[in-house]
Design a protein that fits this description.
It comes from Streptomyces bobili. It is built from 9 helices and 10 strands. By secondary structure, the protein is of the alpha/beta class.
C-alpha cells in the first residue's frame, strides 16, 4: 500500500503534545502515524494510525519504521516527541537514573533519526522535528538531568541539520513552554533523595506543576509543529506559545547577572 499524501510519524502520540500534533498533522493533510508503548497492535483513531513503539529499543524502532514504509511507501515528517521527565537535585539522581532518562529523551531521538534518515535522503526530502523545551536553553534547578537532556537534544539537532540540509532534509526544534498535559505522570522522582534538599525540592515540584497548569493547551504546540512541517523556508527553532517566546526573548536580551537573579527568585533560592 502507498499513499499520494505526505506521511508523518509522531512518537509519544497517545496523550498531550504528541496526540495534539498527530491530530493537527492529519487535519493538515498528512497521512499520520502515531506511536505509543501502550498501543496494542495497529489501529486507527480520529484519522491517525497508531502503532506500538518503544523508542528505547533498537528492534522496536526498526520494526515500526519498516512497517510505516512498507504500508505507506515513504516518511516525510518525523516528530520526536516521546520523552520522560525527572525531578530532584542533581545529587539526588543516580547516574543510572540519568542514563535511563537520556536513553529515552536523547538516544531515543537518535534511534528514530537513524532509522528514518536513510528513507528521507533516498527521496531527497524530509523533516525531523524534535520536541525540546524552554529548558533546552534555560537552567532548571531541581530538574538538572531533564534540562541537560534537552540541552543535548538542541545541540544534536542543530548539528544534524547542517549535515543533512544538502540532501533536502532538515532537522528542526520546537520549544514549548509550560503546557497543560499529563507530563507529571511521566516524571521520575529522585532515586537517592537527601533530606537537605527536601524542602527546596518540594518548592520546585510545586512550581513545575503550577507552570504546566497555567500553561498553553497542547494545540498551541501542535500549531508550531505543523508550521515546522509545512513552512517553505523553515526556521531551525520554533518557540511555541507566549511564555516560551517571552522566556526566549528575555534570555537573549537580559544581562547574564539579571537573568541569573531572576532564575533564583522564581525558584525561591537563597543567595
Amino acid at each position: 500500500m502507498t499513499t499520494t499524501r505526505p506521511v508523518a510519524l509522531v512518537t509519544g502520540a497517545s496523550t498531550g503534545i504528541g496526540r495534539a500534533a498527530a491530530l493537527a498533522l492529519a487535519a493538515a493533510g498528512f497521512e499520520t502515524v502515531g506511536t505509543s508503548r501502550k498501543t496494542s497492535g495497529a489501529d486507527r483513531r480520529d484519522g491517525v494510525t497508531f502503532l506500538a513503539l518503544d523508542v528505547g529499543s533498537e528492534d522496536s524502532v526498526a520494526a515500526a519504521v519498516e512497517e510505516v514504509t512498507e504500508r505507506f511507501g515513504r516518511i516525510d515528517i518525523l516528530v520526536n516527541n516521546a520523552g520522560i521527565g525527572s525531578s530532584g537535585a542533581a545529587e539526588e539522581n543516580s547516574v543510572a537514573q540519568a542514563q535511563r532518562l537520556f536513553d529515552i529523551n536523547v538516544f531515543g531521538v537518535m534511534r528514530m533519526t537513524k532509522a528514518v534518515l536513510p528513507h528521507m535522503r533516498a527521496q531527497g526530502s524530509g523533516r525531523i522535528i524534535n520536541i525540546s523545551s524552554v529548558l533546552g536553553f534555560l537552567p532548571a534547578p531541581y530538574m538538572a538531568t531533564y534540562s541537560a537532556s534537552k540541552h543535548a537534544l538542541e545541540g544534536y539537532t542543530e548539528s544534524l541539520d547542517h549535515e543533512i540540509r544538502e540532501y533536502g532534509v532538515r532537522a528542526l526544534i520546537v520549544q514549548p513552554g509550560g503546557t497543560k498535559s499529563s507530563f507529571e505522570a511521566n516524571t521520575v522522582e529522585p532515586d537517592m533523595p537527601l533530606p537537605i534538599y527536601a524542602e527546596q525540592r518540594r518548592i520546585a515540584d510545586k512550581l513545575a506543576v503550577a507552570v504546566n497548569e497555567d500553561g498553553d493547551d497542547p494545540t498551541i504546540v501542535a500549531k508550531a509543529i505543523v508550521a515546522a512541517a509545512t513552512d517553505s523556508k523553515p526556521k531551525v527553532r520554533y518557540t511555541a506559545g507566549r511564555s516560551a517566546r517571552l522566556l526566549s526573548a528575555a534570555h537573549r536580551v537580559l544581562p547574564a547577572g539579571v537573568f541569573d537573579g531572576q532564575i533564583r527568585k522564581t525558584n525561591k533560592l537563597a543567595g
